[in-house]
Design brief:
The chain has 142 residues and is of the alpha+beta class. The chain has two helices and eight strands. It has a domain of 95 residues. Strand 1 and strand 2 form a beta hairpin.
Length: 142
């Protein structure tokens, strides 16, 4: 008959297991916090809408004749060869008009928008109603 050694755990074995549990629980907590931040950013409507607006706005920056922000910086006139495209704040949304006609909403739930142009780049600053602030610069080819 085989007799087992029934001494149990030693103090060093118990401390090693406790150390492993602490390390793994810390790693799990850190990865959960990272996942929560990523999930929040991925599902934030304003983040997604702003990135879509950036792609849309950039498509109008090619073959420009001139770029003119208004004096209050709440609108920008993009003069192309065949039309003038206006991006402006209208209430709590940003709209696009072509030759002062139409009304196409391009960004919603905004508190403030500012356009600046320094001869080489157009800078767009947007503050949303939830407090999120986004800014993007676009190089304007001549």
């Amino acid at each position: 008959m085989f007799i087992k050694n029934e001494r149990g755990f030693t103090f060093i074995e118990a401390m090693l297991q406790l150390f492993i549990i602490i390390v793994f629980s810390g790693a799990i907590l850190y990865s959960m916090q990272y996942l929560m931040k990523f999930t929040h950013a991925a599902y934030n409507k304003e983040e997604t809408e702003f990135e879509l607006f950036v792609q849309y706005f950039e498509s109008y920056l090619y073959d420009l004749v001139s770029v003119t922000p208004t004096y209050d910086k709440r609108a920008v006139y993009l003069e192309q060869a065949n039309a003038i495209v206006i991006f402006e704040q209208y209430g709590y949304l940003m709209r696009k008009r072509i030759d002062n006609k139409g009304h196409e909403p391009v960004l919603m739930r905004i508190e403030n928008v500012q356009y600046t142009y320094n001869g080489e780049e157009v800078k767009v600053y947007v503050k949303f109603l939830n407090g999120l602030e986004k800014e993007r610069s676009f190089y304007v080819p001549k």
